[in-house]
Fold each of these.
Amino acid sequence: MRNIFFSKTICSVTLVTALLGANFLGTCAAGGDKSAEAEIPAYSGSPSIELNDNKPEFSKSEITKVSFESYGELDDLGRCTPAIASISTDLMPTKDRESISMVKPSGWNQEKYPGLIDSDPPFLYNRCHMIGFQLTGENANEQNLITGTRYMNVEGMLPYENEVADYIRNTGNHVMYRVTPVFEGKNLLCDGVQIEALSVEDNGKGVSFNVFCYNVQPGIIIDYSDGANKLDKNYKADQSEKADEKAESDKADAAKNKSQNGKMSFSMDEFAKGSDSQDGSDDVTRSAPEQTYSYIGNRNSHVFHYPDCDSVNDMKEKNKVYFEDATRDEVMEQGFRPCQRCKP
Ligand SMILES: [Zn+2]
């Protein structure tokens, strides 16, 4: 059954990559869905694009209000295959993330690029959850972890995941969710992932999308056969990207100053368990004090703040989650949203 309902998606994306000069996968049946063909251009600056006019392609028989999650077996090359779920609050995690650093997904060829990648350490690759931890609480499940660039993880996939998580928390409804990694030929690193989502109880009114997130990193040249990578010496960020980077680093500086000046004498033991659990940063102890940031999140609302925000004073101690040395991105990867008041 699973093979049947996954094959359609794989075909439509494979047809697209075939048009872009990729190898056509032998597994794809003739007459696959061509609707997405014209819609996957080569990466051109946007972390994700819409497929099939942004309409998800779940069949009627796949759509269900009964929560479930299913992760495909790794293929012969050790690569992930599609994961599908009907997600509601009952599948969402109630515990902090555990370490996933023992998993080495296909194409894992880790390098650091200081100055280009805005995380600490500046790792190119993250162990990317296909179905995000905040949605189904999967930790070191090798059938749900792919090698993905920091850029794909944070700029590409995370906003969609957050949209789905917010909707489920606000409504208690179900969302059909499917993530399909797209590999070209025998490549070990995927070109990107297709994410489809459809809210069930309201028939897509709340959430409905079908997107492709590119597994690229601006400024880095990647060999998708094995994940090898090198600096693109010709790379020059265009003006808007530079402006964004400037804004980001200003924000980071502000956060740094703020946390250094703020009241920082809170206890860290509560969040100690989670401190090694950020994607990609888990092979190295993250300890450089001048590059650390501090936030406090609310376990229930999943909003995070600067420690000196007034909202933190109103928070019950048992609801506080301390982020000792997580970056803003990493806090958001764990399913937290920035406070509207202190705007961390
Ligand atoms: Zn706040």
Amino acid sequence: MSALLMCVALLALATPRLSAQHWEPCTDLRPLDILAEVVPSNGAAGGIRMVQAQGTWGFQLSAAAPHIMSFPASRMFSRCDLFPEEFSIVITLKVPNLPPKRNEYLLALVAEEKDALLLGLRYSAAQVHFLFLSEDLAGPWQTRVSFRSPGLMDSQWHTLVLAVSQESFSLAVDCGLPVDIMADVPFPPALSVQGARFFVGSRRRAKGLFTGLVRQLVLLPGSDATQKLCPSTNAQLAELSIPRALQGPPGKPDDKDNEVLKYPYETGMKVTLGSRPPCSKAEDAQFWFDAAQRGLYLCVGTEWVSVLAAKAKLDYVEEHQRLHTNSETLGIEVFGIPGVGLFAATANRKARSAIYKWTDGKFVSYQNIATHQAQSWRHFTIGKKIFLAVANFGPNERGQEFSVIYKWSPRKLKFTLYQRIATHSARDWEAFKVDGEHFLVVANHREGDNHNIDSVIYKWNPGSQLFEANQSIATSGAYDWEFFTVGPYSFLAVANTFNGTSTQVQSHLYIWLVGSFQLFQSFPTFGAADWEVFRIGERIFLAVANSHSYDVAMQVQNNSYVLSSVIYELNITAQTFVKFQDIPTCSALDWEFFSVGEDHFLVVANSFDGNTFSVNSIIYRWQGYEGFVAVHSLPTYGCRDWEAFDTTAGSYLIYSSAKEPLARVLRLRTV
Ligand SMILES: *[C@@H]1O[C@H](CO)[C@@H](O)[C@H](O)[C@H]1NC(C)=O
Ligand SMILES: *[C@@H]1O[C@H](CO)[C@@H](O)[C@H](O)[C@H]1NC(C)=O
Ligand SMILES: *[C@@H]1O[C@H](CO)[C@@H](O)[C@H](O)[C@H]1NC(C)=O
Ligand SMILES: *[C@@H]1O[C@H](CO)[C@@H](O)[C@H](O)[C@H]1NC(C)=O
Ligand SMILES: [Ca+2]
Ligand SMILES: [Ca+2]
Ligand SMILES: [Ca+2]
């Protein structure tokens, strides 16, 4: 956006009206929440559904008749009838893939009597168009300003800021560099909105209805909203103003791909807003979101059952299930399959690993899969396909080393072999998406005795429907990969444990730049076994689990399992992670972040203190200025991996033991 726009004082920019005594803008000069105007806070409007996608709530309007999603412009333009000459529009949306040529309206301002489109915003597969009516001596005509390839069709949420000032039109996506267009027709200095109506998600007609999800639609008179929104740690969801019903929605922060919470949207479950609706057979399995109390309820039988009462507080933890596993378990992955249920996959040391299904409040054995010293499972999806990849540490019967990707067969209701990938003592798989493309990265731990080998990133080839090698990254005893995004940037962190002589090696953070990952920052680590990224509000943290301090040259002086693990925090200005807190741990192997109500927690897997595997694992609570403070001490034996998950009945933790064939499910009791 032009610097000029930012410098000029707000008042001068707002469309003034020359009244008898003084200049006065027609609207308030604050963000005007257009979406909130059409979706009353009790959510009573017909045909509007609240749905969740990727952990974020939005409205689906397509079932609502256009007139329901409209209101007279006079409601906002209370003082006079002129649209501001300079303004910006902020919209957060998630769009479906549109066929070529199809256009959908996000917003329209229509002069009702003449049925004239005064102002419109619509998009197609390739463009975003801003339309407005301008008038000159020859009469009124419609002007269209088109922005190419905004990249909205990747099934992600995006926040667009359209800023208009005379003949300058600019569009910024996710706080990225704005595309500026200088048009030969300026936006009219005095566009009358007399007798006009705003239509959200349509152009007053049935044709061109918006079929995606919308979370934010705001008009900011007089200024460029990018100044208020950007930079943002969560640029795809940067907020200026969000309707009340969507504020502080229940569920975990969206840094975790929570498949359990994604489920209502994927299956098109219905969420009702407003005051307590009836719950009978007809509403069974439907959700009700109580915006006032911020609670989400599920109709079970004839009762509304609280799914995630946001104000719940963790009181204590109790044992819920002792899960006898095939053998010692090195990793657990909990995931949901839409329409089927909740599952846990265990990576077991001996011949078979297992998949369990949550049935009547317990994990029950569902499928066994032959693995070779399996270390971890990773669940991911590509479109409608559901996959599960296992990291095999050992060779198969024929001495070959493979890690394997399995695919869910909706017909057999089982996972079946999909692709084998040659790996070297694989420890971990991480799945992620960059610019709409799917990737998998493997942590190759060692080849023979050599720990300094490459770990490999694979890219999904939509043509061959297989993963193919894309990039190799040198690692030292790689143990874990963790992917995360900050605004438009994608990061990949590796935990390096051992270089052949020492566990005191650097672990690295890489950033995606022009088609490959490049080194961004290095961290001193001691036998690093896990990276965990998490967000608290706008803050971004990265925690490393240090398992062992050891050096061949100094093994007598320095061979310790009791050492600090470190939490780092991203300083956005400095573009670097800085140490936030040291936490004493005993051969820490995993961190897991979870939230209960409005509180945030970290649990660490402490596995060994140098003498015994019977050590306590600790739950820490986020206490702001104090950082993380130990609140619960849980006796564990050779603790290897923690996972947090939610069901309709409550919130749970599960942990596995690397030293005994027993995993435990713990229930989080709340008050
Ligand atoms: C391993 O790391 C130690 C300590 O950082 C260093 O002294 C040693 O040279 C490294 N060894 C190899 C093989 O890179
Ligand atoms: C890896 O994938 C990226 C993104 O598609 C691509 O730009 C790059 O050329 C690929 N690299 C290799 C070596 O295939
Ligand atoms: C021993 O290990 C600790 C980490 O636990 C490290 O801070 C210290 O520098 C090491 N001492 C020597 C002599 O290498
Ligand atoms: C972030 O980094 C900047 C630039 O180095 C520094 O001035 C600022 O104090 C840091 N902020 C915090 C919270 O540490
Ligand atoms: Ca990982
Ligand atoms: Ca972790
Ligand atoms: Ca874990």
